[in-house]
Amino acid sequence: MRFLKIITIGLALSGSSSLMAMDKDIQYNPKQDLPLSPYKNFMASENTMLRPLFPEDYKALCPIYTNAEVVKYFGPGIPLTIEEIKKQALARAQRNDCQKSLAYHWAILAHGGIAGSVSIFHPHDQEERTEIFYCISPAFGGRGLATAASRLVIEFVGGPFIATVHPKNKASMAILERKLGFKRDLNRQNVEKYGTVRDYFLLNEKE
Fold first, then answer.
1. If DSSP codes are grouped into helix, strand and coil, which group holds residue 145?
2. The N-acetyltransferase domain covers which part of the protein (predicted)?
């Protein structure tokens, strides 16, 4: 799996005497930053940034997982309690630190705060593709953040991918098919999965 391990952002400040006086002999070693979780597997596009999910991010995910209209498309469709969301965020953050974890989870950072999360699940249950899953807080909807975040993950992980969607979640289907290039798996529609039924969509590796 090809993750972007570190990104260094340079800021040019015109007329800054402190930068002008910086010791040219000081050498920056990016390896020193690798243990810093915010910069490990960090990704960025023009309007979206992804960093590993932290336990404290549960606060930003509460508007998603406590909202009955949103979670009706997730798993069995039952809203979670704040304590359940807290435990879920902790478990996902801990998996991010496991080298052999079957999953990885990012927080989606946008203007205004944490907009949601995007996750991958490595091939499992005899599935030969990496599964991708995203969720966006209602306050951040309509800004293309699910699309942007998914594109970042798809670009760096490589694929091939699979995604499953509740048959009534037309908005998510539109993202997969029209924005990300997934194709409907006609052999797997209305399949019982995650305590409900799901339609399958596939995306092959880039040639």
1. helix
2. 48-204
Q: What is the pLDDT of residues 48-93, one digit of tens each?
A: 899 999 999 999 999 999 999 999 999 899 999 999 999 999 999 9
pTM of the model: 0.79
* CATH 3.40.630.30 applies to domain 45-203: yes
Distance CA 33, CA 25 (A): 19
User: What whole-number distance in Å separates Cα of residue 174 and Cα of residue 165?
Assistant: 11
By three-state DSSP, how is residue 41 classified? coil
Residue type, 193: K
Measured CA to CA, the distance from residue 24 to residue 22 in angstroms comes to 6
H/E element, 9: none
Q: Which of 42-46, 77-81, 104-108 has the lowest mean pLDDT?
A: 42-46
Question: DSSP letters along 67-105, please?
Answer: -HHHHTTSTT--PPPHHHHHHHHHHHHHHHT-TT-SEEE
Residue spans per domain, the chain = 45-203
User: Long-range contacts of range 73-82, CB-CB < 8 Å, 24 or more positions apart?
Assistant: 73/165, 73/166, 73/168, 73/169, 73/172, 74/135, 74/166, 74/194, 75/194, 75/195, 75/196, 76/194, 76/195, 76/196, 77/166, 77/195, 77/196, 82/58
Q: How many CB atoms lie within 10 A of CB 86?
A: 18
Top mean pLDDT of 99-103, 123-127, 187-191 is at 187-191
